[in-house]
Amino acid sequence: MTGIKHNPKNLYNRVAELLKLIQNTVVQTVNKTMVQTYFEIARMIVEEEQKCML
What we know:
It is a single chain. With 54 residues, this protein is an all-alpha fold. It has a domain at 21-54. Helix content is 85%, strand content 0%. The longest helix is centred in the middle third of the chain and has 46 residues, at 8-53. It is rod-shaped. The N and C termini lie far apart (80 Å).
């Protein structure tokens, strides 16, 4: 033993903090992907509308 006490609460807190960090990363990635997708859909709609006007 190194003299460090095993503290289940400390482990729980570290795991919970890691999960919160990862959750935030996932949310940001999904939001970014949604914005990019909606932008591309809007671009496709505008291009299609411009073709119909010719």
